[in-house]
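Methods: example folding runs. The two proteins below were folded one after another, and each record is reproduced exactly as written to the output file, sequence line first and structure-token line second.
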Amino acid sequence: IAMTLREAGCDAQVLASDIDTDALQTASSGVYEAERIADLPQQKLRAHFLRGTGANEGWVTIRPELRGMVKFTQLNLQSSQWTAMDAFDAVFCRNVAIYFDREAQKKLLERFTHVLRPGALLAVGHAESFPATHTSFRGCGRTAYEFQPPDSHRSMEHLAPARYFDRELRVDSVKILPGQYHAMGGEGSISTLLGS
């Protein structure tokens, strides 16, 4: 996601979360075996990764300018309290809630209504359809839902609306298709929370 936003020139911050501190440590190190990214086009490899040399040959690291776009934090989506967060323009919570019971999914959706800007995107996994059960989420693709709070939901005047979604899920000039991410040149700003 960060690569796509960077390629589009978006001034973006991504909050990447997981309950597993080992997974967070691995991700935040930004160091991978080169074979894990071998299928990426050469242009993306040069733009986003640095190849190791000498003792680090066979390894790559994320370029600092890309790494600086992502903050990593531990988050238990079922915790009774989350740390204070700014409102998000998009939440990618893919293949997580499928393991929650209906009541936990319902609570999670309600929590999302308090951290999403009006018009924001919620992307879930292909086997997940739980947002369709909430009146504040409108389906706009197989795995994408737009957050549209009713006027009576709560006062959201302090939040600027997510300014980027039209029927094709355009993020200003960044087109995000859940499961497949594309970018087209332009400028914009987007905040995202990753749940998986």
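Second run, written to the same file directly after the first:
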Amino acid sequence: NQKSKTCKLAPFKKLIKNKYMPEEKRKLKAFISYSKYDGEECNDRTKGDGVNYLEKFKEVLSGLTVHKEILDAWEDTNLIPGEDWDKRIEDELNSADIIFLLVSSSFANTKYIKDKELKIAFERQNKKECIVIPIIVRDYSGWVDIKWIPENSALPKKARSIDTWSKDNKFASVSQVWSEVYDGIKKAIDNYKIYP
């Protein structure tokens, strides 16, 4: 009978899977915190500089999200119409392994980011539930005065900002700056406790 064959084969299948098949690793969950002026409203000349840093960052992350498939990134453009957006953002923040902060003056001046997203991010980091990685996208010296952020190593290294790459003799192009960001993120993931 079919049921008894399945029962007899189950332990054998488990042994084969454990011995000869690599264990599946779960994807790390990432949350991207950003100002709308560094994302979908980047062309608002009063606040943004015309560069959609959110889209560029997601493009840079594609090596980890699409190709290696070790990271699943979420940001608020994934909200569904009619959804309780505040609860969803809080749920995503509370379940993220990595929280990316796309830092700029617009980011620093967004009340929701200051009052909700940064608070949750750094409370969780202090409990060692996640890691927080600030990425300085637009030149803004005031980022060092934002509570919690200066305590974390930011990308690009040495507190450079992505938008000032041409002023920095270290980089030949903006692509090199994004490469440094990508390499830093890979290093952080490699060192993260749940992804060997």
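Comment on the second run: The chain is about 40% helix and 10% strand.
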